[in-house]
Structure prediction request, 356 residues.
Amino acid sequence: MSHIMNRIKNGEFALIAEIGVNYYDIAKKEGISNMEAAKWMVYEAKKAGIHAVKFQTYKAKTLAAKESPSYWDTAEESVTSQYELFQKFDSFGYKEYKELAGYCKEQGIEFLSTAFDLESADYLDGLMDVYKISSSDLNNRPFVEYQAKKGKPILLSAGASNAEEIDAALGCIRKYNQQPIVLMHCVLEYPTPYAHANLNKIVSLKERYPDLVIGYSDHTKPDACADVIKTAYNLGAQVVEKHFTLDKSLPGNDHYHAMDPKDAGRILEGIAFLHSIRGRYDLSCLESEQPARQNARRSLISMVEIKKGTPIGESMLTFKRPGTGIHPEDMEKLIGKRAKQDISEDMVLQWGMFET
Prediction:
């Protein structure tokens, strides 16, 4: 079973490193092959504690028309044609992804890749346990249907979508597939300014789709304290996907808003701390509070010396710490009972001191 789905089932947070096609630039910088760079990134993701890695599987000719304009920050990525950009990063096919999936298995990290055409959706089926559907394909009904029919859990990003479109995509999936769905809040703005992260949408998604797991696909630049991701988690995102690189200074594509291994470590450390302080939902006294509960609460105390056989009146009683005697809320039950023994002034009263 999918490692991500197991974590979800156990109520645990899951972090996905979106390697995408960033390994091409790492390979060029380091003078190594694309496969060596991709494996290196998988290795570093695993070492950082990340739970899954995700690639992007496409061919430029099946993804974008030659006249498709850019929608990213051209100050960071100067290419203005989608076709031209994607063509730079589409050399991998089934053979390469099979090798990567095998390497991920060796490393103990889950392999995922977003399919962008029917061919890759087919051959990835044998390589991964979960399908990821991009925000850009949410309204691509034939393609959503095609992947839903694979019968596997689905991560569905909902960037740039309204409620009716999300409803329609989910309805399409549920016609063919009853496996778990993780609905990912996402903002299709590269990079996403912090003020545009719109994280409260996570709350709205949880309210509108209570039967789904809600996640967050992040495109903001990593902040020093991982506040964006930690806030998303606190608002209800159980799965977070974020672009991943080994060098955030590299120009182009998805490096400039990606996390590196140090960022990933801060995210996971921060989430672990938040998880530890959030605790349980039940309304009950914690075991660790028991000593304070006993000693900081109050008991009924004798205000005066009480002789054996004396009936107890309210004027004889007060309440003080510790809370190891008769509780103050039981005062009415005690009034009128006779003392079975002599009771000194300022004693913590116990039921055994009185006649039944």
Remarks:
- The chain has two domains: 3-278, 287-353.
- The CA atoms of residues 151 and 177 lie 5 Å apart.
